[in-house]
Amino acid sequence: MRKNLLSSMSAVILLASTFTAPKAYGMETAMAEPGSPEAKAEPTQELVPPQQIEMYLDGFHIYKKQMNLPTEKQTQVRVAHYCTHYSPELFECVVYSGNSKNSRLIGIEYVVTKEAYDALPAAEKKYWHPHDGEVDSGLLRMPGLSEEKEKATLNFLKTTYGKTWNLWQPEDKLPVGTPELMWAISPDQIKAETKKAVEARAADYHY
């Protein structure tokens, strides 16, 4: 019996040593360099929803639960929003930790017009923050646009409201725990560190 058990264990070890985890179909093609033979080997999948993104907003958030803390004790986070104009009254934004290819997808933000916000019940309004202070303070910008287009768009966004949930907190290696409701930074509560980040963004918005 011991001999049969050892034989069985040896077979399992041999099998494990030769096992290769299956790869997602088409992943080699999807991850290949554009224009390379691998990329041309077979057609790529359609990625329609993310291709509808038409706006990049560069801004800063705080945790709503920290909004009454002293300024320097708040966690103020720079974030990159990539937004789709879903309907006349709604934008849908995916929120990243930066604008580089290795940035983390950390949250979502929905943006609605003032008319849509005003129609919400009082119990729902507590989740939505105004954008006027972010625009007036210069915290919210649209890098890459002409000054004229940026000004026109921000003047519109100034009247809107956002509902933002962070799913991946800055200190975590993985997106674990409870989602956090995020908020706009009050213009009179901008941390010294945040002001430096704003200055750095003016010189080079990539991060």
Give structural attributes.
single chain, 207 residues, alpha+beta, 2 domains, six-stranded antiparallel barrel, 7 strands, 32% helix, globular, disordered N terminus
Put the structure in a nutshell.
With 207 residues, the protein is an alpha+beta fold. Helix content is 32%, strand content 23%.
Lay out the secondary structure.
Elements: H1 2-18, H2 27-30, H3 37-40, H4 48-51, E1 55-63, E2 76-87, E3 90-96, E4 105-112, H5 114-118, H6 122-125, E5 129-130, H7 132-137, H8 147-157, E6 161-166, E7 180-183, H9 192-203
Antiparallel strand pairs: 1-2, 1-7, 2-3, 3-4, 4-6, 5-6, 6-7
Mean pLDDT: 87
Order of helices and strands: HHHHEEEEHHEHHEEH
Number of strands: 7
Q: In what order do the strands lie side by side in the largest sheet?
A: 1-2-3-4-6-7
- Name the overall outline: globular
What is the domain tally? 2
Largest sheet: 6 strands, antiparallel, barrel
How far is the first residue's CA from the last residue's CA? 63 Å
Structure description:
32% of the residues lie in helices and 23% in strands. It has 207 residues and is an alpha+beta fold. It has a six-stranded antiparallel beta barrel. A hairpin with an 8-residue loop joins strand 3 and strand 4. The N and C termini lie far apart (63 Å). 19% of the residues are buried.
